[in-house]
């Protein structure tokens, strides 16, 4: 946070929760209304929305048309994250509101993708439970899989996907991808996700997707194409996957294993997933390191400070 300027006359609406240090700094610099914490956030916003010049949200709590209608003076919305699926980009552009994100999390997300891949291959979570239960000795854990040299497919080769691919190079993986944009990379491009899945041992979902409620891009056909030795890792969005089809594939052994950081109805996770040994579950923590959380929070604050100082936004996307 390079600018310590205060703007006490600028009122901000918090439409999504923030880390405590971000909230403290925003309160120090601006006049804050934490509408996301109200029993009826939109009713609360309706009372003060005509005074609001800035909004703060996150990837899972974006800026909607309804928000915009209640904040006629809104100039900027700073999102803590990079997800845009919950924001109405058409309405935002129509109103001329600036939307910013925090593009500083790609390393952490890619790191977790590899961690989940290794956890699936080497059964790390299952092995931990095995040892803690006192089963080591009387029993032997089934053999794991070797990540090095695997055929790795990436659905989405944007800023996160490319970082996953770079890490996979260190594992001597045979890397391929599918993406709407043809990339200038030394990896094989496939025309569609189904073909990619058929040619992959492990499939990483790194794609940006549409809003929740859109048809899933990954379903039964993909899991069957990966097959009973195939592995699936999702560090994108839970709703991009047909979750019941994924659960069935794992439970029936039609898919070998999965590493999942995101879920359709998070924080709720299907009970059946909790009972399976061939799945590794993490609670949407892909960007959750001390270093990245601080960098993301600083990016939110710096965007708002720069904008209200008249210098423009630092990381605008709309």
Largest sheet composition: 7 strands, parallel
Q: What share of residues are in beta strands?
A: 15-25%
Radius of gyration: 22 Å
Q: Can you tell me the overall shape?
A: elongated
Number of separate helices: 12
CATH 4th-level superfamily of the largest domain = NAD(P)-binding Rossmann-like Domain
Side-by-side strand order of the widest sheet: 8-7-6-9-10-11-12
Number of strands: 12
Q: How far is the first residue's CA from the last residue's CA? A: 22 Å
Structural class: alpha/beta
Number of domains: 2
Overall helicity: 25-40%
H/E topology pattern:
EHEHEHEHEHHEHEEHEHEHEHEH
CATH classification class of the largest domain? Alpha Beta
């Amino acid at each position: 946070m390079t600018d310590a300027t205060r703007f006490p006359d600028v009122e901000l609406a918090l439409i999504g929760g923030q880390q405590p240090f971000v909230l403290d700094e925003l309160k120090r610099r601006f006049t804050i209304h934490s509408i996301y914490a109200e029993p009826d956030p939109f009713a609360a916003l309706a009372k003060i929305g005509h005074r609001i010049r800035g909004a703060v949200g996150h990837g899972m709590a974006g800026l909607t048309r309804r928000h915009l209608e209640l904040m006629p003076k809104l100039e900027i919305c700073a999102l803590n994250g990079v997800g845009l699926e919950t924001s109405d980009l058409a309405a935002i552009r129509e109103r001329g509101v600036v939307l910013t994100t925090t593009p500083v999390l790609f390393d952490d997300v890619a790191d977790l993708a590899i961690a989940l891949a290794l956890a699936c291959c080497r059964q790390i979570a299952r092995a931990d439970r095995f040892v803690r239960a006192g089963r080591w000795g009387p029993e032997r854990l089934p053999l794991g899989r070797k990540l090095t040299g695997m055929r790795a497919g990436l659905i989405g080769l944007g800023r996160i996907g490319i970082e996953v691919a770079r890490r996979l190079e260190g594992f001597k993986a045979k890397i391929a991808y599918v993406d709407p944009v043809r990339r200038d990379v030394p990896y094989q491009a496939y025309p569609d996700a189904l073909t990619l899945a058929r040619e992959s041992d492990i499939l990483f979902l790194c794609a940006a997707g549409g809003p929740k409620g859109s048809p899933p891009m990954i379903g039964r056909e993909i899991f069957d194409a990966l097959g009973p030795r195939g592995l699936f890792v999702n560090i994108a969005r839970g709703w991009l996957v047909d979750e019941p089809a994924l659960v069935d594939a794992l439970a029936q052994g039609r898919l070998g294993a999965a590493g999942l950081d995101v879920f359709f109805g998070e924080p709720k996770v299907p009970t059946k997933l909790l009972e399976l040994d061939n799945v590794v579950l993490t609670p949407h923590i892909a960007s959750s390191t001390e270093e990245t959380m601080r960098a993301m929070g600083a990016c939110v604050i710096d965007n708002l400070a720069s904008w209200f100082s008249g210098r423009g936004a630092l990381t605008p996307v709309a």
